[in-house]
Amino acid sequence: MSRAEPSPRRILIIVENLPVPFDRRVWCEATSLRKAGYEVSVICPKGRGHTESYECLDGIHIYRHPMPVEARGIAAYLIEYPVALFWETWLAIKVAWKRGFDVIHGCNPPDLIFLIGLLFKLGGKRFVFDHHDVNPELYEAKFGRRDFFWHLLRLVEYLTFKTASISIATNESYREIAITRGRMPANRVFVVRSGPNLERVRSRPADPAWRRGRRYSVGYVGVIGQSEGIDLLLQSIGHIVHDLGRTDIQFNIAGTGPEWNAVVRLCEEMQLSNYVNFTGAIADEALFTMLSTADVCVNPDRVTPMNDISTMNKIMEYMALGRPIVQFEVREGRRSALDASLYAAKNDPQDFAGKIITLIDNPSLRQTMGAFGRSRVERELSWTHEEPKLLAAYEALFARKLPWQSRAPRATATAERSTSQASGVNANAAAGRASR
Hints:
Blueprint: E1 10-15, H1 24-35, E2 39-45, E3 54-57, E4 60-65, H2 74-98, E5 103-107, H3 114-121, E6 126-131, H4 135-143, H5 148-163, E7 166-169, H6 172-180, E8 189-191, E9 216-221, H7 230-243, E10 249-254, H8 260-269, E11 276-280, H9 284-293, E12 296-299, H10 305-308, H11 313-320, E13 325-328, H12 331-337, E14 341-344, H13 349-360, H14 363-381, H15 383-399, H16 403-422, H17 427-435
Parallel strand pairs: 1-2, 1-5, 2-4, 5-6, 6-7, 7-8, 9-10, 9-12, 10-11, 12-13, 13-14
Antiparallel strand pairs: 3-4
C-alpha cells in the first residue's frame, strides 16, 4: 500500500503598508515559497490598481482589506493601525478556517502584527518576523523626538522579536538590531536582502516621449513620503533649472504616498511643473521604460538614523537596469551601490544637483557606473541569490521544534533510560543513544 503524500506546509503572509503584488519584496517571497512547494496566502491592504477583496495570482491566495486613512500624523496612525489590525485578525481567522496555515509571516511596519502571531501561537502556529523597517528610527525621523510613542515603539519591537520563532532581516544592520535590541539568538536571525527579480526588472528600449522634447531625463521610483526626501529633490531641481539655467533635463517621478499632494503643490509653487512629471502608480512596462530611458536615476532619501541603516529597493532596481545613481551619503545605500552611485553631502540639495549634472555631462562615467551596478546585481544582489536564503530560513524554522513539541522527546528519552537501567543495560550507552 503506497504512503499518502504529505500535505504542503502552509504560510500566511501579512503586510500592512503596501498592497500585493505591488510590494515587490513580499511578492518575491510569496512566489519563491509557492515555487518551493508551500501553500501561500497573503493578507494586505487595498491600493491603487489592487482593489479586489480576493484574487488568486500565480497560485497565491490574496485577501485585501480596506484602509480608512493613509496616515501622516500621530492621530491618523491611531486610526489606521487599530482598523488594519482588526481586518488582519478577521482575515487571518477566515484563512485559518478556509485554507489553514502553519506559519504567520508578519511584515512590518507596523510592529503590531505580532499580536496576531501571538494569538495563533497559542494554537501551535509559528510566527516569522520579516523586518522591513526600523520603526523607532522611522518615528524619530518623522516627528523629531523620542517621546512616549517612541518608547512604545521600542517596546512593541522587542515584543515582536520575543514572539518570533525566527527573524528575517533585510541587511546586516537590521540583523544586529534583532540580536542586540531584540535579544534574539544569532542562529535564529537570517539575512534575506531585497534583491530584484531580473525576470521582472529588465531594460526596455528607450522611449523619447519620457524626455518630453528635452535632451536628458532623470528618473525616480518609490514612495512619496516624508523620509523619502522628494522635497529635497525638488530643491535640487530648482537649483538646476533656476540657478544653473539647465532647461535640457526632464525629471520623472513615479510612485504615490502620503506626501503626494504636498509635493505636487510644492512643485507648482517652485515653478517646476514644466520640468517635473509625477506619474503616480504605473504598470511595470511603463515604469521600466521610463527608468530605462533615464540617463540618471536618483534616491533623495534624507539622511536619518532610519535611512542610514535601511536597504532601499529602488537602488537595487536602478542597478539592475544599468542606471548610474545619485544619492545622499547613507551607510546601507553605499554598501549596496558602491561604485554604481555618486554620493552627495548630507541632505544638501545643491550638492545633490551638482552630482546629477556631473553625470549628465559625462556619458562615459554614466556608462561605467551603470555597467558596474548591473554586474554587481547579477553576481551578488539579485533575488536569485536571496531566494535560497529565504528557503533555508524556512527549513530552519520547521526543523526547530515548538515548546510543546520539545517536551515530548525529553519524556520519551527519560522513559527509555529507565527501561534500559531496569534491564541492566549500560547507562552510558543508553545516554549516548538519547543524545544523538
